[in-house]
Structure prediction request, 491 residues.
Amino acid sequence: MHPEETLDPSDWPAFRLQAHAMLDDMLEHTAQLRQRPVWQPIPQALRDGFRQHLPRQATDLAVLHQRFLQEVLPYSVGNAHPGFMGWVQGGGTAVGMLAEMLTAGLNANVGGRDQIALEVEHQILHWMCELFSFPDTASGLFVTGTSIANLIAVLIARTARLGGQVRHDGIGHNGHLLRAYTSAGAHGCISQAMDLAGFGTAALRIIPVNARYQMDLAQLTQAIQADRAAGLQPFLIVGSAGTVDVGAIDDLDALATLAREQDIWFHVDGAYGALGMLASDIAPKLRGIERADSIAFDFHKWGQVPYDAGYILVREGAQQLATFAAPANYLRRENRGMSAGSPWPCDLGPDLSRGFRALKTWFTIASYGADKLGRMISHSCELAHYLKQRIERTAQLQLLAPVNLNIVCFRYADVAAEYLDELNAELLIRLQVSGLVAPSGTSIAGQFALRAAIVNHRTTRRDIDTLCDATLHLGHQLRAHYPTIKLARAA
Ligand SMILES: *Cc1c(COP(=O)(O)O)cnc(C)c1O
Prediction:
C-alpha cells in the first residue's frame, strides 16, 4: 500500500527556506520597481512557453519560481510601477501583498457561516457607512470590481421598482417599460449592466455632458419627462463620481434631488472617485454622494488595495436582501453553531463561494490609516495639476480637457492639424514601448488624446517630468516624418 499522500510539503524546513526566498524576491522587486521598465513587449518564445501540455509529473517549486522571476514578473502590465498612468488602476502595496498571503493561508470561503471573516467584512461596511454617512441599515458586499457592483445596483433598482415577483416572472411587460439614465461620460459597464440585467442597452438613455463633462441636468430632466409622456417608466439614474476619460464628477447633489422628486433609484458609479471622500480637499466635490441609494466603488484603484476588491454599498440593506436572498434558505438558518449569523454574504449577491477580500482591505486601511490614504489621493490630484501647468507652459503641448481630479488629457500639438491624431497615436505606443512612462489613449470630442490617469501612490513629480520630456522628445522625432504646419502652409 502507498503511504497516504497530501499536498503539504514533505520537508517543511526546506519549504520554509523556499518560501522565504520567494517573499524576499517579491519585496526586492517592489523596492526596485523604479529601476525597471513600466512595460515591455513579451518575446514570442516566452509566450510559447505557456502553450505546453498538461504536466502529469511534479516540477520542483524552486524551478517554477525561477520561471516566474524570468518569464512572468518582467512582463506584467506595470500598474505597480510609478510611471504607469494608463487607464485608472491602483498600484497595490507591500502591506496588501502580505495580507493576500495571509488570506491565501486561511483559505477562507466567505460566502457565509459563523466565522470571523464575516466580522472583518462587517467592519469594512461599518467604516464605509461612516465615510459616506450611510445609515446603520445599509448593507455592503465585496465583489470583483465596480463592473459587477454596478450590475448588482441595476438589479436592486429593478427589484425595488418591479417587486420581488420579478425574480420569478422575469422583467416582463412592465420591465420593458423601464428606463435608466446616465451621462455620455459614464463607463461602458453601465450599459453592459443594462444588457446583462435583461433590459437591453437601448433602455439606457445617454444624456449629453455640459462644458465640465457633467451630466446635463436640463437634458436629463427633459429626457425623463419625455419618457413619462410616452408611457415609459424612469427607474434609475446613474451618476458618475470620477469619469474614466476626464475625471468629471456629476452634480451628485442635484441628481439626488431630482431622483427623489421623481421617485427614481439614484446610483453612483464611484469606481475610483468615491474614495476621494478620504481626502479633505476632494470630499467637497462629491457632495450629494451621501444621498445615493447605492454606491459602487473599488478599493483596488485609489484605495491601493491589491486586485481585486470592488464594493457595492446599499443604503437600505433590506432591498439588497430582497434582490438576492432565497428566503427559504436564510430564514431557516440556525442561531447557534457554524450556521449562525444569517444573513450571509451569499444572500446579498450572486456569489456563493467567495474569497476573503475584506482582509487585505482591512490591513490596508488600518495599517496606513484613512488620513494617509486620503493624502495619497490628494497628491495624485496635485500631480495632475502640476502636469496641467507644465502642459500650459509648453507651446508644443496642448491640454484637451479640464483637469478636475487626477486625469489629464493632452497631446503633442506641433504638427499640421490633419496629422495630429495619427502622430499622437504613434507617440503613445512609443511612450509605452520606451518603458519610461505609460499613459493610455482616449478620444476627446473626436480627437485622439494622450491620457495620464494618476492613481498610483508611487508616482511623483519626477514621473510627470519624464512624461512631459519623453512626449516632447518623441513628438519632435515623429514630427520629422510629417509635413509641418509651415510646410503645409507653404504648399
Ligand atoms: C474602473 C471603472 C469601472 C470598472 O471597474 P472595474 O473594477 O474595472 O470593474 C467602472 N466605472 C468607472 C468610472 C471606472 O473608473
